[in-house]
Each structure stands twice: as structure tokens, then as C-alpha cells.
Amino acid sequence: MQELLEKIDSYKQEIEASSVLNAEEVEAFRIKYLGTKGLVKAIMGEMKNVPNEQKKQAGQLLNEFKVFVETKFEGLKAQFENNDSDASHIDFSLPGDAVAVGTRHPLSIVRNRIVSIFKRLGFAIAEGPDIEDDWHNFGAMNLPEDHPARDMQDTFYINQNPSWLLRTHTSSVQARVMENQKPPIRVICPGRVYRNETISARAHCFFHQVEGLYIGENVSFADLKQTLYFFVQEMFGKDIKVRFRPSYFPFTEPSAEMDISCLICEGEGCNVCKHTGWVEILGSGMVHPKVLENFGIDSNKYTGFAFGMGVERITQLKYRVNDLRLYSQNDIRFLQQFTGAV
Q1: Which residues are listed for Mg(2+) binding in this entry (predicted)?
Q2: Is 253 annotated as contributing to ligand binding?
């Protein structure tokens, strides 16, 4: 038994002092100590020479020695398994890993395009809060509390008495601009708006608008028409056809809706244009004198025009999207189709 203890101590010192320089030397260590003819198996064979009353103690010592050797081997092996920094194994001529590049959302692409077109015409950008008071959203826009046109916009109210609501249009931004700025005024107002509508392929409870306002001396309906003609030609191409239809909005008089020839059927009639060959893209008109007077602007001296469009509708026509719900579902299959757009 004493001889066995001395051998184990001697082998432990030898193994503790062992070092290796490469994976080949690690394998040589394994064969020498843990192989089928290795030192551990040989010393295990000496159990037969141990007296019976000492076999239990000897077995514990031999098992501890075997674990010691296996632990040392695993440590040596790990040095080379985890060492990937050897420059000789790196091929610097290989191409790099592809980096996935994101893209703007289609609504952001079209919104930025709209803003860019009107900025070239001298329009500045104005923004306002999503939560508005009743006056800026309705009252200032010639929509008093008992006005029937309010029924056209089923509203999300945050509070009543006083009334606070999620804005139903970005006309509230125009109101704030007229409240704080004297003519001449030339702004566009992009932003998200909210209405309590049933969600479907053609409508949603939130959407995006870009509204425009121009107030100055001698501003006419002809100025409005030429501004919008320029916009649609820049957005959809020079061959696009345009028509104006009389309409009604409380904050403009006279008012008109603007249609363009359907891009999907090229004016021949389809489900998108309801077989008319025309698609409405925006509402417009001359600013109502009452709206000007609400902000202390002399309606005898100044006139102006305003217009508003839904970004979703423009995007639908630009990219032929047939369901407005796709814009907010975050479906990667839909969004990846716009990776080529900037």
C-alpha cells in the first residue's frame, strides 16, 4: 500500500509539471496517461496486490488519481480548442460576411417624397401635438360643436369639459401656425391622425396625412391648381391625368376634390377605381374667410388655399398596395419588397 501511495505522488508531480505546445502533444499526453496501455490503466492493475482490508482505501486513491489526470487532460485540450487567434489559419482573401441593410417603411418613403416636392415650392414643415384641444381641432376650422360635419369624423376623446382628443386631421397644425405667424404663410403639415373607424382593407383607426396651407395677398384658385398639378406630375409622372370635382369642406370655400387617372388599370376601370378610371387622392379649396378671421387675419387683404392628402392612399397608388392593414402589421415579407427604395 505504501509503495502505491509513493507511485501516485510521483506521477502527480510529473503530470502537474507537464506542458504542451500544440494539439499533437495533447494527444500524446492522452495516449501516455489515459490510453488503453497508459499509466492510469497500469496503476489500476496494481489493486490485485493490495491486501483485502486496504482495498477500499486504495480504490478511493486510484479513482481520485484518475480524475486528476482526466482533469489535467481536459485543461490542456481546452487551450487549443478555444484558441482561434492563430493568424496562420485566417484567409484574409475571403469575402466578408454579408450585412443586412434595413430600409425605410413605405409610408416614410412616400411621406419624405411628398415633403421634398413641396419644399421645392417653398413650403416649410410645421408639426403639432397628436393630442389636441377642441378649439384647434374643430372650432378654429369652422366646425362649432353643433356643426353636422363633425359626424364625418368619429373621434377618440381623451377628456371632456374641457375636450381633449386625438387629432382627426393635421388641420390643427395649420390652426397653430396661423395663431402664431402672420402672413405670408406657406407650410405643409405631415403627421399621424386618428379616427374611430372600422378597420378594413380600405380604412384604419389611424393613418397619416400631409396637409398644406398658403396664405398671402392675391392667392387664387389658379395658384392652388397649378401647385397640385406640379405635385402629381412629380409624384406619378408627366403623363398623369387630373380632374377637379366640386366638394364641401367646412374650412374651405370653394372646395374641390382632386382625382387622378387610375395607375392600376390606366383609366380603363378596375376594382380600385370602382370602374370609373379615376381615383381620389386629396381634398382642397380656398381657405374660408371665417377661418382667417378666427386668427385675426384680414380676409379682405389676404386669401389662401389649403389641401390635404392621405399618405396611405398615395402609397397605395405608387406601389399598388391593395390592403391598408399591411402598413401596420410589420410583416417582413411585405416590408422586404421595399429594400430597393431610398
Answers
A1: 253
A2: yes
